[in-house]
Design a protein that fits this description.
The protein has 2 domains: 145 residues, no CATH class; 32 residues. It is 48% helix and 5% strand. Helix 2 packs antiparallel against helix 3. By secondary structure, it is mostly helical. It has a 4-stranded antiparallel beta sheet, with no helix packed on it. Strand 2 and strand 3 form a beta hairpin.
Length: 241
């Protein structure tokens, strides 16, 4: 059966745009707004944002001039009047500091739950650095997801992975479903969509499907033809009386 169009998620993807500098500037504005009058929270968030700006420059997404412009915005908004290294002055004192922690080591070869992976780092006994690294990694995943989504939509790659199905548009595969769950989890945590919107969209996807006492799913298409899918089966079968 073909999946229904995801309203809120599709709208979010459609509104994505701009170059990396523009997206970073928007992220900076959201950071300042979300911190409100909490100077300690604002200082922590701006310190993390400055490290993200440096990383984007090292990855070649922004040039040295854009880097320095973003750092200037951070310094102007920083409640502690903190200064950060500029590329124009040839100083990397802030980014070369021994206090900057290494990125967390990820388990390779199987699905990784970020909450479980970094649970110890986020505990009170581990201090604040573990929580900071988790937030940075989650933020980076969200930004990479947005960038890859732009590219996929522009190239049409999102339409290539489809299985045989009476509706013609349903995508099967545990990997696709797990990736979708991870993307939605990140979007909820980042405040891009609410849990209520996510639940409503999921319920829309299952609209029209009925499940009998044996666990068999039933669906009637527009022509009045009934289709059924037994438990543990991926494909739908036409019902013939």
């Amino acid at each position: 059966m073909a999946k229904r169009k995801r309203g809120g998620f599709g709208k979010f993807i459609g509104n994505l745009g701009g170059n990396p500098y523009d997206r970073l500037m928007s992220q900076f504005e959201r950071t300042v707004k979300q911190a409100g009058d909490d100077d300690d929270e604002l200082a922590d968030q701006l310190n993390r944002f400055a490290r993200i700006v440096k990383r984007r420059y090292e990855e070649g997404e922004i040039d040295d001039e854009e880097h320095d412009l973003l750092i200037e915005e951070v310094e102007d908004a920083h409640p502690d009047d903190k200064s950060f290294a500029r590329l124009g002055d040839g100083s990397d004192e802030f980014y070369d500091s021994d206090d900057i922690p290494d990125a967390p080591e990820l388990k390779v070869g199987k699905d990784v739950d970020l909450d479980d992976l970094l649970q110890g780092s986020r505990s009170d006994s581990a201090g604040s650095w573990g929580a900071d690294e988790y937030d940075e990694y989650r933020q980076r995943m969200a930004e990479e997801f947005m960038r890859e989504s732009d590219e996929a939509i522009a190239s049409g790659d999102h339409q290539k992975v489809q299985a045989q199905d009476p509706g013609g548009g349903r995508v099967f595969g545990d990997d696709e479903e797990e990736a979708e769950k991870m993307k939605r989890k990140i979007m909820i945590e980042e405040g891009m969509i609410s849990e209520e919107e996510d639940t409503a969209e999921e319920s829309e996807d299952d609209d029209g499907i009925e499940v009998d006492e044996d666990g068999v799913e039933w669906w009637e298409d527009e022509d009045g033809q009934w289709w059924y899918r037994p438990p543990d089966e991926e494909d739908w079968f036409a019902y013939e009386e």
